[in-house]
């Protein structure tokens, strides 16, 4: 397993940053290689993405979601990964978003991309594009304020 840790400060309140992050179907607007994300139910998303030069379709399960604090997930199948995004209030109208992700590179291209730091740079770019997206809008495109606990998804 490989691990990525990235963070970025955005100039919007925690609530705005968190609310936008829960709009998974908007991820293709700022995540490189993500073609589509469909929210199937409160805790399941279906992804189509390019990973290591290969088109992949996979499901991800939200394992924990606490409004204005964190969203954790796990994906199995064609893309094995798990992670958590946390939201930290820095001040009035400023939030630090921290991303921690573990993934299992599959195949020669993905393993080479991991060794060369391509995945880490892509993740950093995704966070930078999220910052541009939410700051240029000034408000979220929607919100889901429900909670999902680890106990309920086990």
List the helices and strands and how they pair.
Blueprint: E1 2-10, H1 14-21, E2 34-41, E3 44-51, E4 54-66, E5 70-76, E6 81-91, E7 94-103, H2 107-115, H3 118-137, H4 150-153
Antiparallel strand pairs: 1-7, 2-3, 3-4, 4-5, 5-6, 6-7
What does this protein look like?
The protein is of the alpha+beta class. The chain has a domain at 2-21 and 60-140: 2-Layer Sandwich (Alpha-D-Glucose-1,6-Bisphosphate, Chain A, domain 4). Helices cover 27% and strands 43% of the residues. It is built from 4 helices and 7 strands. It has helices at residues 14-21, 107-115, 118-137, 150-153, and strands at residues 2-10, 34-41, 44-51, 54-66, 70-76, 81-91, 94-103. It has a 7-stranded antiparallel β-sheet with strand order 1-7-6-5-4-3-2. The radius of gyration is 15 Å and the shape is globular. The two termini are 21 Å apart.
Specify the helix fraction band: 25-40%
Strand order of the largest sheet: 1-7-6-5-4-3-2
What is the CATH topology classification name of the domain at 2-21 and 60-140?
A: Alpha-D-Glucose-1,6-Bisphosphate, Chain A, domain 4
* Superfamily (CATH H level) name of the domain at 2-21 and 60-140: START domain
- What's the CATH class label of the domain at 2-21 and 60-140? Alpha Beta
Question: Uncertain segments of ≥5 residues (pLDDT<50)?
Answer: none
CATH architecture level-2 label of the domain at 2-21 and 60-140: 2-Layer Sandwich
Described by the principal axes of the CA atoms, the overall outline is globular
Compute the number of strand runs: 7
Secondary-structure-based class equals: alpha+beta
Following the backbone from N to C, one meets helices and strands in this order, namely: EHEEEEEEHHH
Relative strand content: 35-45%
- Provide the gyration radius in Å: 15 Å
Tell me about the biggest sheet? 7 strands, antiparallel
Distance between the termini: 21 Å
The overall pLDDT average reads 89
Q: How many DSSP helices? A: 4
């Amino acid at each position: 397993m490989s691990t990525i840790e990235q963070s970025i400060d955005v100039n919007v309140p925690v609530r705005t940053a968190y609310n936008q992050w829960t709009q998974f179907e908007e991820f293709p607007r700022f995540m490189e290689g993500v073609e589509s994300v469909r929210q199937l139910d409160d805790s399941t998303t279906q992804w189509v993405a390019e990973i290591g030069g290969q088109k992949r379709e996979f499901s991800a399960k939200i394992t924990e979601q606490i409004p204005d604090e964190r969203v954790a997930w796990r994906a199995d199948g064609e893309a094995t990964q798990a992670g958590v995004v946390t939201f930290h209030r820095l001040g009035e109208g400023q939030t630090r978003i921290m991303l921690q992700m573990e993934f299992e590179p599959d195949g020669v291209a993905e393993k080479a991309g991991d060794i060369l730091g391509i995945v880490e740079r892509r993740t950093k770019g995704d966070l930078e594009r999220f910052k541009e997206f939410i700051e240029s809008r000034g408000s979220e495109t929607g919100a889901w304020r429900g909670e999902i606990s680890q106990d309920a998804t086990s």
